[in-house]
Amino acid sequence: MKRNLIIATLVVFACSFIFLLSSCAKKQVITEEKEIKAPPKEVAKVEKEKPPVEKEKEAEIERAERVRLERLKELEFAKKREAEAIEAWKERRAIKFEAESIYFDFDKSFIRTEYRPDLKKKAGYLKDNPNINIRVEGNCDERGTSEYNLALGERRANSAKEFLLSLGISPDRIDTISYGEERPLASGHDEGSWAQNRRDDFVIIKK
Prior knowledge:
The protein has 5 helices and 4 strands. The chain has helices at residues 2-48, 52-99, 116-128, 146-166, 191-197; strands at residues 102-103, 132-139, 174-180, 199-206. Helix 4 (146-166) links the parallel strand 2 (132-139) and strand 3. Mean pLDDT is 83; it is low at 24-36.
């Protein structure tokens, strides 16, 4: 009986000792795992957080880049507006070139003094625009025969051409044609109407 009691006591003691060892081992394993896993978390936290100086530097770079992009947009817009203004100016010059005719005395084909400055302006326009050719169209009033007026219109067109050639314009850039009395501007039968019909018109022809 006494022996059985001793054995039972030893068994209980052994079980308690084993349980105690097992608990210590688990605690140690958990502690070690925590110790192993904790450092990476701290490292990750440090890597995500950048020093204030570096953050400010990055922010300054971003601000500078935004300013640069805005400036580029402004320059592109300004260039576009400038190109549009230049095109509009060229268009106005072209319209003026064609709109300004020169006029002749009755039965005459020489260039009147008052129209020579106009021809000089036309020569300047042609020099500024080497990609443009022109056609000079001679016209007459209704008096005289059709054949005579066709010849007179041709002489008037050639007079303007010769004047432009004397100012340095290449002859291969200027064509001439005579319409005689076929294209009157004014339909009246008086000197006021006839004076408007004795003229040279200028038409732009692009190469």
